[in-house]
Amino acid sequence: MSARLLAKSFGSIAARTPQAQPGQRIGLLGGSFNPPHRAHVAISEEALKRLGLDEVWWLVSPGNPLKNHDDLAPLDERLAACRKLATHPRIKVTAFEACLGSPATVVTLSYLKRRFRGVHFVWIMGGDNLAGFHRWAAWERIAALMPFVVADRPQWRLAALASPAARALARYRVDDR
């Protein structure tokens, strides 16, 4: 694909991502991080350990298309707060998604898969996101692009497991043990 076509399909090819090498295992934790909190750090650190990841990238979104943006802090403020909180050396904070020209996760993940061939990505989401995953743009394509792990949120457990996406993907579920 030519640079111009790539730019047209995925926004700016100058998007500044963290560096990655073929063979690396990288977790992707996307969200508005409005505000970032200790649970984001805990999920990332647990994923690093349990999944044997080299890094976790926090993909700070310019804005979730499924949420109201009235109380959304400016991107620069959220980035600064994330960098202050995420002190683990293998957690990388980035907002390159703002350069892609689309808030859709499927665009972000497709971009990363094309840009970093040979890197093994895993999408990380909370149970609350799994509960509404069927409302995401091209959620089936997201599930086909890369494996994903769902961090349990006890108050969302039943809704997540009963969701249309969880039911549709049940045959792929791997027990956390």
Structure description:
The structure is a single chain. With 177 residues, the protein is of the alpha/beta class. The protein has one domain: 3-Layer(aba) Sandwich (Rossmann fold), CATH 3.40.50. It contains eight helices and five strands. The chain has helices at residues 3-10, 38-50, 75-85, 105-115, 127-132, 139-145, 157-162, 164-168, and strands spanning 25-31, 55-60, 91-94, 120-126, 148-151. It has a five-stranded parallel beta sheet with strand order 3-2-1-4-5. Helix 4 (105-115) runs parallel beside helix 6 (139-145). The longest helix is centred in the first third of the chain and has 13 residues, at 38-50. The radius of gyration is 16 Å and the shape is globular. The termini are far apart.
Structural descriptors:
177 residues; 8 helices; alpha/beta; 16% strand; single chain; Rossmann fold; 5-stranded parallel β-sheet
Task: Summarize the topology.
Elements: H1 3-10, E1 25-31, H2 38-50, E2 55-60, H3 75-85, E3 91-94, H4 105-115, E4 120-126, H5 127-132, H6 139-145, E5 148-151, H7 157-162, H8 164-168
Parallel strand pairs: 1-2, 1-4, 2-3, 4-5
Helix pairs in contact: 4-6
Please report the number of helical segments.
8
Backbone shape: globular
Residues in helices, as a percent range: 25-40%
Rg, please? 16 Å
* Overall number of strands: 5
Please identify the top-level CATH class. Alpha Beta
Strand residue content? 15-25%
Give the SSE order as H and E letters. HEHEHEHEHHEHH
The CATH superfamily bears the name HUPs
Number of structural domains: 1
Mean pLDDT across every amino acid position: 90
Low-confidence stretches: 1-8
Structural class, judged by helices and strands?
alpha/beta
CATH topology: Rossmann fold
Largest sheet composition: 5 strands, parallel
Q: What's the N-to-C terminus distance?
A: 41 Å
CATH architecture: 3-Layer(aba) Sandwich
